[in-house]
Amino acid sequence: MPRVVWFKKCNANGNGNGLRSITGATPRRDRRRHRPLLAPFDLSRLRATLSSHPLTPRLLARLLALSLAPATSLLLLDWYALSHPALSLSSLPLRPILAAADPDHALALLDSLSASRLPSLRESLLLPLLRSLPPGRALHLLDQMPCRFAVAPSFCSYNVILSTLARADCHADALLLYRRMLRDRVPPTTFTFSVAAHGRVAEAAMLLDEMLLMGCAADVNTFNDLVLGLCGLGRVREAARLVDRMMTRGCMPSAVTYGFLLQGLCRTRQADEACALLERLPEVNVVMLNTVIRGCLTEGKLARATELYEMMGSKGCPPDVHTYNILMHGLCKLGRFGSAVRMLDKMEENGCAPNIVTYSTLLHSFCRNGMWDDARTMLDQMLAKGFSMNSQGYNGIIYALCKDGKLDQATRLVQEMKSQGASRIFARTIQ
Question: Where in the sequence is the domain holding 32, given as residue range(s)?
């Protein structure tokens, strides 16, 4: 019996007319016989051909690896499985076929296979289906997995459905599924915990205890999620205790951990505590320092903010554009406009280029305080640097004009901005 060999198009020469053997050289008569089976693919013709030349599992795998339509691949696989009941399908490329197929057709194909046909691939084959189904159907399939497919769900299946529930904002259902996972003695992972706790910070500490009781070690990312959530709710003291607990379990906090904690302290107007924490840290970065400087300025503690700014160089964290923008914004809020302008000059002297936020901060502060000459000077300087403001910036200027009683100029500015360059109009308006 002649050897059956499958071919696919080879465009190495650019003409697309050659045929390359997948399994090796073959007689020319075999090439002529199998050429019409590939373009277009015809299952009925394949059946007729293979009635005299049986197809081996290896060659079936090669055929399924071709760029066939999902429906065609499923039809071919189903037909071959029915005609070869003793076949083990573990070596066939089923994952891409099932992932590309409609979920209902894919499930029907898996139902047609006996439990002994896919001894080790069954859950991995179901994972793409769990991802593609809506939350309700995914949960139903999870319930059916032991009886319908003879496979017990592992943490992989639970994680997929937890992610689906989280994306659908079904956080209460995610918590219920997490606790069911614990009852079923399925060890959770840190990813499982993060998904289950998403949006439910109030219950996150309890979930963490449950996870630790299961013997699952929490990593730094798990603790960081909790610290961020607690600080976002203003529960900074609990977040600080969690950081202490984190260290007792041998998990060292990262720069991100301390950054979240410093941000929480500053948002709750605890700048002094943030400064004290900053001094205890072995290493700091520019983001941490910027956070605490902003917190000090928000509470009116200019001297402390200036002290932090001046020590940045000795800490190995030279000020960046965000540092200067924070300082200028804080100085303007405190009425220290001259100091803010001098900070701009110092910024350029230190080789830090201003950005649009820098100029917008000063320009809006001048406008809000009726300092129109200074505003015009700052605008000219901004235009000379090649910057132009966006609509949000001009909205602030129009608001300042109205607040200062310059309604005619504000109205004229709005009307002319529709058809001309807004920067030039504003410069002419405030002259």
Answer: 1-54
